[in-house]
UniProtKB/TrEMBL annotation:
SUPFAM superfamilies: Putative DNA-binding domain. Coiled coil: none annotated. Residues 17-85 form the HTH merR-type domain. This is MerR family transcriptional regulator.
Amino acid sequence: MAADDSNGRLDDDDYPAYTMGRAAEILDTTQGFLRAIGEARLITPLRSAGGHRRYSRYQLRIAARARELVDQGTPIEAACRIVILEDQLDEARRINARYESLDPDHSR
């Protein structure tokens, strides 16, 4: 693999660059929390050749939002559902903005 290929991957939000330990450290949480949100199907880490969980920057942002909600007293299952719905809403807004940019005369 060429060095510029790895640099490109590290710039990719979906590239699984972080081990579970490093992800927990970045989020200032426990590995158990990462396992729990994985079990709740909020994020599904990729696995290394050795079977270790690997997380992307996108997954870390999702996990950070879930942790924020849990820290505020929201049960983990509810926090995961909220984060999923927020993510879906963000995606719908991005799609809507693209459609509106194609038809600038579109009025509401």
